[in-house]
């Protein structure tokens, strides 16, 4: 199993799955994109579901590592909670290095019921759950009572744009408003004054 062929297949498959989704992607199309034969593809992966699971795990792991690094970088220096959370939200939304991965995530959301459950579980465990756990750990250090729920709320309120347009990104004003709602909903101000 030559690693360069395997990597070419994974890169080609990511492009095809991100563009066409799981259901419409074909092994022939993926082999063509990867510039390998279908036989070579099947020498590395059992079937389309196996390939998809490997693609989403690899892609999600890379994106999650970058997001966790961003979380660690932003949360080690909290001085003004509201402003620092706004800056964090802007930085998370501005990540451009994983465009194909996030296109693939939009495809997953659109096709959720047509994708093998094992692939969805692998994606969630390798990507979103890992990122939420890292964020929850940082929020716990800041004294949030329910850091797991707070992590979900912060991500939703700062990374989701217009809900009518799936995949839209919020602007800076939306991020600032999301942080205000987040802090109000988690009663941070009352806890801060009670602690002094």
UniProtKB/TrEMBL annotation:
Q: Which domain of life is it from?
A: Bacteria
**Which positions fall inside the HTH tetR-type domain?**
3-63
Q: Which UniProt keywords are listed?
A: DNA-binding, Transcription, Transcription regulation
A GO molecular-function annotation: transcription cis-regulatory region binding
Question: Which PROSITE patterns does the annotation name?
Answer: HTH_TETR_1, HTH_TETR_2
* SUPFAM superfamilies, per database record: Homeodomain-like
Keyword field contains Thylakoid? no
One of the GO biological process terms? negative regulation of DNA-templated transcription
Pfam families, per database record: TetR_N
Q: Which residues bind DNA?
A: 26-45
Q: What is this protein called?
A: HTH tetR-type domain-containing protein
